[in-house]
């Protein structure tokens, strides 16, 4: 977060635009969800079985789908969209069916993570999309605010957990490669911060959650077949393929909706012209 704040302030200050204090106050609602999503994700992966995390995260698009129906420009729902989301859930279920289970420990963190993740995506979509209720802040300005305001609750949690006293020892124990990896993680974090805002301004919150869930299974394949750090059973390969297929089908369903909307808008524009024949 600090690296993102510094990068925006030092290298992108010319493109930072903040319309008003009211826009900043509106965006401030996102900060607790943004930080909560990051923290609860770490804790969910630490205390809950991976199978539980993977399955329940695929349910998040269903929740956002219902809420986006109440937006100023509501998300249109079609049968292919619903079918693709259920395909992802089925694929995730297949994948996790072959995983070892260690009970339901940490399920509270999983649900809390879903709550924060869905809230973060929905609020960002509402305030980024031009057809919803956008704030007058540039993407670099939003990246700056997201990370600067997100630091505040993070610092509070660090103080509660007494982690500040651990920082000197952690820094001293870093090797040269350790510094390299930390530096690279900061660069990746900057990229994620900005491109996440950019992507959310272009697609719905539900589409973003579907994209994130499908990406997780692509990463699983990279780990298994490229990095050779994970071994998969046949049923897990099938489950991962089905989940990724569900993500692709969702993308095609959204593409069909947008093409239809574009064609309808073009027809209405032509009909509205003087002398047009219907």
Automatic annotation (TrEMBL):
InterPro entries: TPT_transporter
Major subcellular site: membrane
Keywords from the UniProt entry: Membrane, Transmembrane, Transmembrane helix
Compartments, record wording: Membrane
Membrane topology: Multi-pass membrane protein
Coiled-coil ranges from the UniProt annotation: none
Membrane-spanning intervals of the chain: 31-56, 77-98, 104-123, 144-164, 176-195, 202-222, 234-251
PANTHER family: SOLUTE CARRIER FAMILY 35
Protein name: Sugar phosphate transporter domain-containing protein
Organism: Prorocentrum cordatum
Organism taxonomic ancestry: Eukaryota, Sar, Alveolata, Dinophyceae, Prorocentrales
């Amino acid at each position: 977060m600090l690296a993102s704040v510094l990068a925006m302030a030092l290298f992108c200050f010319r493109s930072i635009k903040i319309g008003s204090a009211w826009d900043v106050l509106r965006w401030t609602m996102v900060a607790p969800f943004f930080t909560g999503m990051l923290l609860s994700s770490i804790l969910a992966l630490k205390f809950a079985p991976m199978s539980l995390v993977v399955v329940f995260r695929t349910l998040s698009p269903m929740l956002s789908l219902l809420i986006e129906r109440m937006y100023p420009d509501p998300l249109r729902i079609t049968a292919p969209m619903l079918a693709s989301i259920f395909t992802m859930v089925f694929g995730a279920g297949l994948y996790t069916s072959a995983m070892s289970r260690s009970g339901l420990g940490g399920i509270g963190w999983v649900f809390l993570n879903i709550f924060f993740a869905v809230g973060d995506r929905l609020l960002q979509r509402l305030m980024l999309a031009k057809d919803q209720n956008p704030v007058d802040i540039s993407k670099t300005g939003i990246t700056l605010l997201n990370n600067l305001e997100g630091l505040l609750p993070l610092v509070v949690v660090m103080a509660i957990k007494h982690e500040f006293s651990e920082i000197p020892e952690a820094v001293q124990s870093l090797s040269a490669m350790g510094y390299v990896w930390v530096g690279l993680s900061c660069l990746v974090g900057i990229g994620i911060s900005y491109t996440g805002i950019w992507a959310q301004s272009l697609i719905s919150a539900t589409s973003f959650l579907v994209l994130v869930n499908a990406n997780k299974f692509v990463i699983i394949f990279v780990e298994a077949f490229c990095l050779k750090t994970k071994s998969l059973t046949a049923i897990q390969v099938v489950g991962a393929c089905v989940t990724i297929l569900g993500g692709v089908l969702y993308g095609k369903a959204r593409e069909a909706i947008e093409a239809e909307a574009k064609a309808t808008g073009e027809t209405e524009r032509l009909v509205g012209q003087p002398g047009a024949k219907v």
